[in-house]
Amino acid sequence: MLDYDKEAAAYDATRGGEARAEAAADAVLTLIPDRAPGSGGTESPGRPARLLDVACGTGIVTRRLAAARPALRVTGADRAPGMARMAATRLPGAVLLADSRRLPFADATFDAVTTVWLLHLMADATEVHAIVAECARVLRPGGVYVTTVDKAAAHDVGSDIDAVLAARPRRPASDAAADVTAYALASGLRPAGEAVFTGVGQGRSPRSTRADLRRGWFTMLPPDDPRAEEFAERLAALPDQDRRRPDPRFRVRAFRKPAA
Q1: Per-residue three-class SS string for 68-93
Q2: Segment 103-113, tens digit of pLDDT
Q3: Would you say the pTM of this structure is higher than 0.85?
């Protein structure tokens, strides 16, 4: 896994920046009601809704969630101090350090919880299940949990780069939609919708893909493995080395906690 403290300063610029953040936030918000659910599961105008963005990173998406819904009380949480410091400049007083597997909140605290580009980073199913269970725990009845799924699969856009890399050994996807849905069901949540958005600026070029491959990304091959260099050589033979292929289309799923 990346050292997110070291990555914090350059993280946004290398991952689509504001354009991708806007697309992500818009997709997430289509799955979150405008107002807090009442005790019977209906929307209640009587109190402000609260949203927790788990693993908020630099806060680039979190800030947009807050700006789009001024009445929504948004809190960001991240366990990397470097990321949390950057997020705090975007949402002063609304960001804290926290481990997504052990959230420092009481049961039924939030009306919505989000995890954007988190679950795919986990090492095994146990960690993913623990995160989903924690997000469900801190949700109020009638609340919604929204998460990205199938991140790695979204990058396979049917390009010539994908054809070259098709035979590479891959890590099992920890954020597979079917698995995340199973964890949500086991945590008492129910499917509540899906959205997609474009990963603006995330299309791969042959040159950038070679560099990523040599860093050990999106494969189980270590960077110094001779097979990794074979893939790199095949990527080097592709035309238009700096032309980015189509941007990925990311999927977001929502799960609702049944009303009490």
Answers
A1: HCCCCEEEEEECCHHHHHHHHHHCCC
A2: 999 999 999 99
A3: yes
